[in-house]
Amino acid sequence: KAGVTQTPRYLIKTRGQQVTLSCSPISGHRSVSWYQQTPGQGLQFLFEYFSETQRNKGNFPGRFSGRQFSNSRSEMNVSTLELGDSALYLCASSPRTGDTGELFFGEGSRLTVL
Amino acid sequence: DAKTTQPNSMESNEEEPVHLPCNHSTISGTDYIHWYRQLPSQGPEYVIHGLTSNVNNRMASLAIAEDRKSSTLILHRATLRDAAVYYCILRPYNFNKFYFGSGTKLNVKP
């Protein structure tokens, strides 16, 4: 079956703009979580959505937001982009929230902020 | 937030076993120990996970210390395709929230 799909794979924005990233989880998976990966901070948890509700949230400013649709697809939005938002944004899915098994990661969306 | 400590880098020869250590002295009784690896320009890939007992799968083995304060990922025969950054992660029970450390960069020499 198809894996986690993230779009777009690459994008370039300028400071002050906003960006929306999309994630389609594996069919049947209802939990979607987002991570930011930068060389300096490594992989950091952003938030998790399950059944269209945010279940967990990491330590990021309010400029970072997300949502999940009834088909489990998820989007994350970053407003008023800063240079430091340049990163690889990874989406991961799992069948349920609170599961103890593996997370399935997409290949990420690489955002460059100029 | 539970933290893990791993060596920054390790080197191995191809077709030899590799033991990747991880310390997690603040682990709680309900934290699962997960290992993922990340190849360049890819998302992390699941390797193995366990709670208390040692675990084996087709990719690797996970040895968990009796006090659960440390664990070791064992690749039985390293190949060039195993060169990656390996992350040891504690996953709190009932939370889909992973805390990634800095990981161990494994270099495999032919």
Describe this structure in words.
The complex is a heterodimer of chains A (114) and B (110). Chain A has 114 residues and is mostly beta strands. Chain A contains no helices and eleven strands. Chain A has strands at 5-7, 10-13, 19-24, 31-38, 42-50, 53-57, 64-68, 74-78, 87-94, 104-105, 109-113. In chain A, a hairpin with a 5-residue loop joins strand 7 and strand 8 (74-78). The radius of gyration of chain A is 13 Å and the shape is globular. By secondary structure, chain B is mainly β. Chain B has strands spanning 9-13, 18-23, 32-38, 45-50, 55-56, 61-64, 70-75, 84-91, 104-109. In chain B, the strands form two sheets. Chain B has a five-stranded mixed β-sheet, with no helix packed on it. A four-stranded antiparallel β-sheet of chain B has the order 2-7-6-5, with no helix packed on it. The radius of gyration of chain B is 13 Å and the shape is globular. The mean pLDDT of chain B is 91. At the A-B interface, strand 4, strand 5, strand 9 and strand 10 of A face strand 3 and strand 4 of B.
Number of DSSP strands of chain B? Answer: 9
Helix content of chain B: under 10%
Provide mean pLDDT of chain A, rounded: 93
Strand content of chain A: over 45%
Tell me the series of helices and strands of chain B, N- to C-terminal. EEEEEEEEE
Report the principal-axis shape of chain B.
Answer: globular
